[in-house]
Known about the structure:
With 273 residues, the protein is of the alpha/beta class. The protein has helices at 8-19, 32-42, 52-59, 74-90, 105-115, 126-132, 152-162, 197-215, 219-240, 244-257, 260-265; strands at residues 22-26, 45-47, 64-68, 94-97, 121-125, 165-169, 173-176, 181-184. It has an 8-stranded mixed β-sheet, sandwiched between helices.
Amino acid sequence: MTASPTSRTAVLLDALHGGTPLVHCVTNLVATNFSANALLALGASPAMVEDPEEAGELAAVAGALVINTGTMSPARADGMHAAVVSARGAGTPWLLDPVGAGPLTMRTRVAGHLLDLGPTVVRGNASEILALAGQEGGGRGVDATASVEDAAGAADELARRHGTVVAVSGVVDRLTDGSTVHRVAGGHPLMGRVTAMGCALGALTAAFLAAARTTGDDALTAAVAAHAVVGACGAAAGATARGPGSFVPAWLDELAALDTAAAAGTDALVDPA
């Protein structure tokens, strides 16, 4: 994905701003508020619903669904399953963020079950992606101990086997649909010192998936665009922030200020030399 006269990232952002898609998030406790604020800043409409009955209802009418396993319980797992089944029935794109998969048994089992239901995008760190593929990926709670490139083969195989896009987050993100691979640079070291940045990335990726329903772009293009936008806004926010406390509002402000011209500029972060 390289810069073009008609940037797909700019087209997707324009569609997102015009449509204000509803993004339904079944996400973890530390990410709920931050993900909602990130979605609002970008121009989407967040909803955080996890009850099994309500989650199924909302997923059917949402523009996209996020399933994040960062906080796990039997009731929450039921809500995740209900939302995914409903989303599949309605043709709603959905993203699986298998937070903590690998070292934690219950969420690894739940994430594996959800993977079999065919997510549109899977987004995680290298250790989580390796765990989903049934490989030893290390991992320390929600932190990766493997590199992005360590998980390259597993990501490609998962994408082919499940017909999904797999995004592996790191210093340089790697996204694949099993045949095409894109790498996205950008970001700032402060992003690693703020909780739920990866979760917010998943939510924003879902917003771009919702926008792609109107533009006709595929899931890989939408996911790459989201990662480039998040990385560009992270780099800009990090340049002015004094530390993690001031980084968060600066990053939200960058998301809110993003226009189509700036979005087109993020294409330079994709497949960096």
